[in-house]
């Protein structure tokens, strides 16, 4: 119903989003004719033009009149107000961010959306110009005073925003351009158009300028941290070995005896006997599988090897059947993940120290991030803007503009490559990898020599050793296997 209170300036934000609203304005008139009072009633249907760009009280315009049981004009009451904005001015907040917006945009004439030259203004500037032409509005581009500091946003302790997001929270801008990433956080604050491009987000890593690259293996952790990690590794290997031996000596004989007693039961029925034998065979296979899985940790050397492998996130060849071991292994896996993540993060931080020159850009894309144009939350222009952005993308204009915008950077890069020295990796910077490989080869070589010496001076000196009857030796030395 028509009410003066809903047309005050504080309601402008609502009526700029609920644009398909019709207000019923009732009228009554009285006149006297032939001594009789004649009452005349009619209803006007009124609406508000979009967009509302004034801080004064809102004025409505007439659509149709209901009188004597019918509409007087009979026109269409609800129509799409976003198709033609009748040359009204829309605010566009700008953040200079290549390739969305370049510094050349300042040379353009704001009143007619035409640039003074053929310079590349940026992809989003060109998209806004096409949208303005199709929807028939005038775009007023403006730049915030502290945009170079605040950029997209700089939220404070009170949760308030500045920069481009602050403009949309203050309801000042209709469009926000400046290379907005299509993220969930942005989507909660403002409306994002259909993505017109995807950008490759990657890492910039500095060149290692120091000659102590071999220390990168130990730099992530301090001395007491390394001591704690090594001690916990030894403790975990010992516990896994003790658990396996206890399960093998105390639990498995009990299961085996239970299986043998069950196998001695004689049942006269042939079918039941066959079923019982099948069940016993399955139980025997399960016991054998459990014994095989326990062999991973029953030997001290194997227990240390597999525990160390889990610390390096190497999967086990099989998971033990014993639930006590499974629970301990599960928690050891969780510990290993946390330790390796902390180690990698600390190593990355040590590599990412800022340097004055020779930065490297990783060629692989970590994330392909969609890029969109920002609008006010619940903006009624979003359907029209999405369709127009799709048309621009499908026509290939975005690729053309991107090529124009990045042309100067390609020329500058060619000049830089011709003059600047190349950042090459020399032998000093590979010390870390070579030392790690050398330590591994050295330990393996020492282990091979120790195994050969043990075989020559311990195994071959055993009285039961016979190279032609090795089964006899292994049968009498089961505890050494």
From TrEMBL:
<keyword id="KW-1133">Transmembrane helix</keyword>
<protein>
    <recommendedName>
        <fullName>Ionotropic glutamate receptor L-glutamate and glycine-binding domain-containing protein</fullName>
    </recommendedName>
</protein>
<dbReference type="GO" id="GO:0015276">
    <property type="term" value="F:ligand-gated monoatomic ion channel activity"/>
</dbReference>
<keyword id="KW-0472">Membrane</keyword>
<keyword id="KW-1071">Ligand-gated ion channel</keyword>
<keyword id="KW-0675">Receptor</keyword>
<dbReference type="InterPro" id="IPR052192">
    <property type="entry name" value="Insect_Ionotropic_Sensory_Rcpt"/>
</dbReference>
<keyword id="KW-0406">Ion transport</keyword>
<feature type="domain" description="Ionotropic glutamate receptor L-glutamate and glycine-binding">
    <location>
        <begin position="92"/>
        <end position="205"/>
    </location>
</feature>
<keyword id="KW-0325">Glycoprotein</keyword>
<keyword id="KW-0407">Ion channel</keyword>
<keyword id="KW-1003">Cell membrane</keyword>
<feature type="transmembrane region" description="Helical">
    <location>
        <begin position="214"/>
        <end position="240"/>
    </location>
</feature>
<dbReference type="GO" id="GO:0005886">
    <property type="term" value="C:plasma membrane"/>
</dbReference>
<dbReference type="InterPro" id="IPR019594">
    <property type="entry name" value="Glu/Gly-bd"/>
</dbReference>
<feature type="transmembrane region" description="Helical">
    <location>
        <begin position="430"/>
        <end position="450"/>
    </location>
</feature>
<dbReference type="Pfam" id="PF10613">
    <property type="entry name" value="Lig_chan-Glu_bd"/>
</dbReference>
<feature type="transmembrane region" description="Helical">
    <location>
        <begin position="323"/>
        <end position="343"/>
    </location>
</feature>
<keyword id="KW-0812">Transmembrane</keyword>
<keyword id="KW-0813">Transport</keyword>
